[in-house]
Amino acid sequence: MPKVTDEYLVDKKNYILKCTGEILKIKPLYSVTMRDIIKKAGFSQGIIYHYYASLDEIYIDYINKNTTYNLLEQNIDLLLNSELTEKEILSECIIAIGKYIEELLKSVGGRTCFELTVLYAYDFEKRAAIFPKLKFKQSLVYAQNKILEYVSNNIEKGVFSPQIPIRSISMFVSNFIDGIAQSMATDVAEGNDSPEDISMMFQTLAKAVICFLEI
Length: 215
Hints:
This protein is an all-alpha fold. Helices cover 73% and strands 0% of the residues. The protein has 11 helices and no strands. The chain starts with 5 loop residues before the first helix and ends with a helix.
């Protein structure tokens, strides 16, 4: 029996993901089944399950493959090492997250991810298992952690003077971002191609955080 190469395995997976994308063009994510993908790919059930144990695994790979996920990390790192003032750096970092989410919404992977967010809105076990594997979620966590670290360091230096506990500020920002993502997910699921102005909302968030820190 000939040896199966890594390239062969990647090609098969990519073909499955391609078929998944074609299905998602005509069916909403919540109604897609593994049988749909098996039929579209022309593979047996056994072959499909050899590569992916579940639909969730397919969605994770599909979203990661079709999402530009490292730009946020790069932008945050550049801002944190820039010559801007502390206030400007903090504001621009928060606004950068908004721009990232806005761009994500335009991508195939991003739109699929938002649909997945709606699908598992109340399935906390699924969310906990799936979302940490999504590279765009990893980017958001990276950005939030970097911003929190930057704020904490500047509190120690006396640059920022928080009016509420830093943990409360962190929770406020995290919940705000999750809320925006949830709202955008709902808009996408409902077929709304003109969601609210994300950039404006993140500019407002930046102003709120700056007020909390009395910069």
